[in-house]
Structures are given as structure tokens and as C-alpha cells.
Design goal:
Elements lengths: L1 H14 L5 H16 L16 H28 L15 H35 L3 H17 L5 H22 L2 H22 L7
């Protein structure tokens, strides 16, 4: 019951776009851990027992970026008749200073903060509320990813859809590698690839 209440409160913060939702969720996570007397490892932020996690997640991020550009984004563009709204990055092309700032923000606020908020706290609490079976995990992944998508409404309908699919992908990595660091690294590398590409050639909405 407590986990369900926490998940509902987190969902409300996201849908109401309360301040910066990911930071609100992190504040909720800290309070939750203190009340429960749990460590942050309970949210998945534990060291990986596998080797070469950085190399693996970098390769997966490259492959995922190619998949996004060749499949996800083009299909979403053609079906909706719109493209992802990337106007927030209009000044990025050729701007080294902005690129540096976005890379730092992309890793700290994008990769670490969002992964801790959505794949760490929110996914864990929804899964606890639904049960730890296979179906509970699947539904928790979808619900937390949809909310992750709605946290990016400034990117338009296509952006919400693309980010939701990203959320599912990052969730699968978090579960597969049994550590939140896997999704943090993959998210960070994915952001880096996107920012560098935009810096070099401008917005890319798909390969076809």
C-alpha cells in the first residue's frame, strides 16, 4: 500500500510538471529511503558484478542511436506527420560552449538524475505495488516509461513517444545487468551521441 501511494504521488508530480519532476522524484526517493531505513542500493544503484560494463553500454548506446534514427523516429514522424521538437537546442550547432554545458547536464541531470528517479525510484515502487512476478515487472516498466515520456512533453507528441521507448530500453538494461549503473551509462552515452551529432550537423529527425 505504501509503495502504491508513493508511486501515485510520483506520477502526479510528473503529470503536473511540478518544478523539475526528476529532482522532485529524487527528493521523494531520499525521504522514502530514510523512512524505510533502506540504502540507495535498494533502488538498484549497486556495483555491477559483470566486467566491462562501460564498454558494453557504450556499444549498446551506439546501436540504440542507430535504431532510433532508422526505425523509431522515422516511423513516428511518418505516422504522426510531425517531428520531435528539438527547438530547445537551436543554438547548439557549431556552439562548443553550449555543447560542453549540455554534455555536463546530459550526464548529471539527464543520465544520473533521471535514471535514479525513473528506473531507480519509480520503477522500484511500482514493481513493489504490483508484485515481483514477471507481469508485475513488465507493467512497471511500461508505466514508468510512459511517465518518463510525459516528463518530456516540451518535445511534442513524437518526443513523448520516442522518450517512452527510450525508457523501456533503459529499463531493460537496468534489469538485465541488475544495476542502475547500466541504464545511467547507456543514457549518458545516448545523450552524448545526440548532442555531438547536433553540434556537427544540426537536428536529425531520422534516416529516411
Amino acid at each position: 500500500m505504501v509503495s502504491a501511494i508513493e508511486a501515485a504521488a510520483a506520477a502526479a508530480a510528473i503529470l503536473l510538471d511540478l518544478l523539475i519532476p526528476s529532482l522532485v522524484l529524487i527528493a521523494m526517493a531520499v525521504a522514502s529511503l530514510l523512512v524505510r531505513r533502506q540504502r540507495i542500493t535498494s533502488l538498484g544503484l549497486r556495483r555491477s558484478t559483470g566486467s566491462r560494463l562501460v564498454a558494453k553500454t557504450f556499444l549498446l548506446a551506439v546501436l540504440w542511436s542507430v535504431f532510433q534514427l532508422s526505425v523509431t523516429m522515422p516511423i513516428a514522424n511518418h505516422v504522426s506527420g510531425k517531428t520531435q521538437d528539438l527547438s530547445a537546442f537551436n543554438d547548439l550547432q557549431g556552439n562548443a560552449g553550449m555543447l560542453a554545458a549540455l554534455l555536463v547536464a546530459g550526464w548529471l541531470l539527464g543520465a544520473f538524475a533521471e535514471e535514479l528517479a525513473y528506473r531507480g525510484y519509480l520503477l522500484t515502487r511500482i514493481r513493489e505495488a504490483l508484485g515481483f512476478g514477471r507481469w508485475g515487472l513488465a507493467v512497471a516498466i511500461v508505466l514508468s516509461s510512459v511517465l518518463f515520456g510525459f516528463a518530456h512533453t516540451e518535445q511534442g507528441l513524437v518526443g513523448v513517444l520516442v522518450v517512452t521507448i527510450d525508457g523501456i530500453y533503459f529499463s531493460v538494461l537496468r534489469v538485465h545487468f541488475q544495476t542502475l549503473w547500466a541504464s545511467v551509462l547507456a543514457h549518458g552515452f545516448n545523450n552524448t551521441i545526440g548532442f555531438v551529432a547536433f553540434f556537427l550537423v544540426g537536428p536529425i529527425h531520422g534516416l529516411w
